[in-house]
TrEMBL record:
The keyword Oxidoreductase applies. It comes from the Bacteria. Pfam families: adh_short. Gene3D superfamilies: NAD(P)-binding Rossmann-like Domain (3.40.50.720). GO terms for molecular function: oxidoreductase activity. This is SDR family NAD(P)-dependent oxidoreductase. Signal peptide: none annotated. The keyword Oxidoreductase applies. Keywords: Oxidoreductase. Coiled coil: none annotated. The lineage of its organism: Bacteria, Bacillati, Bacillota, Bacilli, Lactobacillales. It comes from Secundilactobacillus collinoides DSM 20515 = JCM 1123. InterPro entries: NAD(P)-bd_dom_sf (IPR036291), SDR_fam (IPR002347).
């Protein structure tokens, strides 16, 4: 991945290993991250891992298996930070 400093990436559905890896790769490339999932425990673990690596991340608890949950995440992100540069929605289940 290229240098993504000053870019905002949203990764929705980070419970899977693939979702976690995507979030970590964006962080490693320098992107500011918003991660979202229904599992507070999984969010906390991924957020901790990213912060330990020097990444800039916030997490949002949301039912990411539903359209309304995904819309909630995007709405919160836009309100707090503006329009994201990247949105990755991981498949659930």
């Amino acid at each position: 991945m290229e240098n993504l400093k000053r870019e905002l990436a949203v990764v929705i559905g980070i419970s899977s290993q693939m979702g976690t890896n995507v979030a970590i790769r964006y962080a490693a490339a320098g992107a500011m991250l918003v991660i979202a999932d229904a599992s507070e425990k999984n969010l906390a673990a991924v957020e901790k891992k990213i912060k330990e690596g020097g990444g800039d991340v916030i997490s949002i608890i949301a039912d990411t298996s539903s359209e309304s949950g995904v819309k909630k995440v995007i709405q919160i992100t836009k309100k707090r930070y503006g329009k994201p540069n990247f949105v990755v929605i991981m498949p659930s289940g």
